[in-house]
Write a structure and sequence with these properties.
alpha+beta, 4 helices, 7 strands
Length: 178
């Protein structure tokens, strides 16, 4: 028997509580050699140095303000298109990709582009049922997927009577889901 899903009102209450907690502090991303970026909040700024309380463990670190990246509010967690982020910085992009990857969403839009994080395992993302889910639909009618890009190219080819191209590049980056 599947676990019961929280009601929409419970999810909305959880989101409101997370937003209220976020609003109380000046949240930032702190560079970290092991994990890339860690969450923290600034409690004091003096000259060009910030005193940051780390969210995990409460450790206090002093860092140059230029090294800190502003954090997006929780409502932007797992957005389909990273171009929608209020603060578009490396830390926020990595955070969003990590959250999406951890929830099984390997595709994310970045404006006109599609970012894919390779799961290095077979996923049920390429069946005929999934193809049909994207056929004849606009990009924003389904979650990000390579089929949405292919569908748009196919439609444009028919409407514009011009060849279309899809650029696929490969960048090897390790993003930990833990």
């Amino acid at each position: 028997m599947p676990a019961p899903r929280p009601s929409q009102s419970a999810e909305a209450a959880r989101a409101a509580a997370a937003q209220a907690e976020f609003n109380e502090k000046k949240w930032v991303w702190v560079p970290d050699d092991k994990d890339g970026y860690l969450a923290g909040w600034v409690v004091k700024e003096e000259d060009d140095v910030g005193q940051v309380v780390m969210a995990a463990g409460g450790e206090i670190r002093k860092l140059p303000l230029y090294a800190l990246s502003k954090m997006n509010p929780p409502k932007f967690d797992r957005v389909d298109d990273i171009a929608d982020l209020t603060f578009l910085n490396e830390a926020s992009v990595v955070h969003n990709l990590r959250l999406r990857y951890g929830s099984g969403s390997i595709y994310t839009y970045s404006g006109l582009f599609l970012v894919a994080v390779n799961p290095y395992q077979p996923l049920p993302l390429y069946s005929d049922a999934i193809v049909h889910q994207y056929r004849g639909k606009r990009r924003d009618e389904n979650p990000p997927h390579i089929f949405a890009i292919a569908e748009r190219a196919w439609v444009n080819m028919g409407e514009e009577r011009e060849n279309q191209s899809i650029l696929i590049t490969y960048v090897y980056t390790v993003i930990s889901a833990t």
